[in-house]
Amino acid sequence: MSKNSSISSSETAPPPHLDLATLRALGAAAPAQDCEACVPLRQPGWESLPAGFDHRSLLCIGNLATPARDGDEENATEPTTREYHPQGTHLWSERAPIAPRHAPYNRSQLWQSRCCGRLFLRYTEYGGYYQDERIRWFDPGLLVDDGC
Ligand SMILES: [Zn+2]
Q: How far apart are the first and last CA of the chain?
C-alpha cells in the first residue's frame, strides 16, 4: 500500500496536439465571460504579453503545431512561416483568421485561464535582438480550416 505507487508524467509530458475538431469543441465550450485576471488579455488581435502579467493564471492545455511522429524528430519539417490572409488581413488584424497550419498559429499553444476558463493563443517571436511573448484571445469564430 505505497502512497506513491504511480508517478504521473502529465507534468513533464509535452502538451497534446489539438486538431481542428478539438479546437472547435474547446472554443464552443469556452465561457463568454472573462475574469479579472484576464482583463489585460482582452485582445481580439495579437498583442505583446502585458508586462507584469501573472503567467500562473494561465494553464497550457495543448499545442497547435503538428507533432513530429515518434522516432521521426530528425525528419520533421520546420513549420511554415507563411501566413494565411485570404481576406486581406494581416498578422495584427483583429479579424485575422486563426489558421492552425500557418504562421504563427503553427507554433502556438492554447492556454486557458485557471479561474474563468477563457482560451488564449500564445507564441514567442524570436527576433535578432529580442524575444516577444505574444498572446491573442482564441475566438472560435475566426478559426478556419486552412488545409495542408
Ligand atoms: Zn480568466
A: 50
Let me know if residue 111 belongs to a domain: yes
pLDDT tens profile 31-64: 888 899 998 888 899 999 988 888 899 999 999 9
DSSP strand pairing (47-48 vs 131-137): antiparallel
Is residue 33, in this structure, part of any structural domain at all?
Answer: no
Q: How far is the CA of 126 from the centre of ligand 1 (A)?
A: 27
Cα gap 116→137, rounded to integer Å: 13
Residue 113 alpha carbon to ligand 1 centre in Å: 4
Q: Is residue 108 part of a domain?
A: yes
Instruction: Report CA(42)–ligand 1 centroid distance (Å).
Output: 10
Cα 31 to ligand 1 centre (Å): 9
Whose CA is closest to 109, among 144, 73, 133? 133
Q: Does 25 map to a domain?
A: no
Instruction: List the Cα angle 120/125/136 in 5-degree steps.
Output: 20
Exposure string (b/e) for 36-62, b if CB count within 10 Å is 16 or more? Answer: ebbeebebebbbebeeeeeeebbeeeb
The pTM of the full predicted model, rounded to 2 decimals, is 0.84
